Every structure is written in structure tokens, then in C-alpha cells.
Amino acid sequence: FCKRMQTRFPVDCPGEVLNNCPLIGGRGDQIQKINFLKDYRFNIAFENSFYPGYVTEKIIQPMFVRCIPVYWGGTECMKYFNPSSFVWCGDCESMDQAIDRVVAIENDKDQYIEMIRNPVLNEHNLYLDFSPSNILSKLEQLCMG
């Protein structure tokens, strides 16, 4: 995906794969990655694997600094995150179709601004209860079937 995207416009790759700029730090270094992303409009945020329910920090990191994730991963992301705040590649018929979406946003300042102004969480997830008692209750429900 990245190589194909690079045929349309420059893509900085600060990791070990396709590296073309300074490395951003060790594996899992959230602060360095977020600091890197704050200067970008888009981030290719592809999961390493596709499993039902598998959604990681890859979609959250760019959202933290209002960088638009170009996301491929578990469909559950649509339950938690506002689809108007990221580019969802999961329903694209091809990589080129996903890249065309990014290019269209890049070329339309109003659409870009609207996307970064959208809330990142779905409305029903704004008030999630992460209290220890609620988390324990959810774990008990999962373990008991």
C-alpha cells in the first residue's frame, strides 16, 4: 500500500521497513510516534493482522494529534470510532480506491478540515465506564460465556 501511495505523493517512512527518514524510536514508543505524527495530515495505520475484535493503537495514535488515519484492520473499529474521522480501507475494492480517497481529501481543504474536526469516538462511546468494577464485570461475563 505504501509503495503504491508513494507513486501519488511523498510518504515518509520512519520505521525500519521502507525507511526514508530518521527513525522515530524503539518498538512501541508511543510518545515519539505521536510527536512524529503531529506534523502530518495522514498516517497509514494498517494492522499487522486481521482478526475479529482486533483493533490496536495504530488507529488511535494519529487521532490523538488530529492526523487522519488511513486504516485497515478489524471491522470493530466502526463500533468505537467515528467513520467520518478516518479513511476506512476495509470496504475498498482495491488499494487504488483507498488511495483515491486519500488523494480526494488531500485535494479538498474543506473535506480535510471537516474530517479533523469530527469527534473521533462514536457518540455512544463517549461515556464508556472504565471503572475497575465495570471492567471486572465485563471480564466475568466473557469468562462465563
What secondary-structure arrangement, pairings included, does this model have?
Elements: H1 2-5, H2 30-37, E1 42-46, H3 57-64, E2 68-72, H4 77-80, E3 87-88, H5 95-107, H6 109-117, H7 132-143
Largest β sheet strand count, sense and barrel closure: 3 strands, parallel
* Radius of gyration of CA atoms, rounded to a whole number: 17 Å
Number of helices: 7
The separation of the N and C termini measures 39 Å
Number of strands: 3
Tell me the overall shape.
globular
- Succession of helices and strands: HHEHEHEHHH
**What ranges have pLDDT less than 50 throughout 5 or more consecutive residues?**
none
Roughly what is the average pLDDT, rounded to an integer? 88
Helix content: 40-55%
Find the structural class using helix and strand composition: mainly alpha
Widest sheet, order of strands: 1-2-3
What share of residues are in beta strands? 5-15%
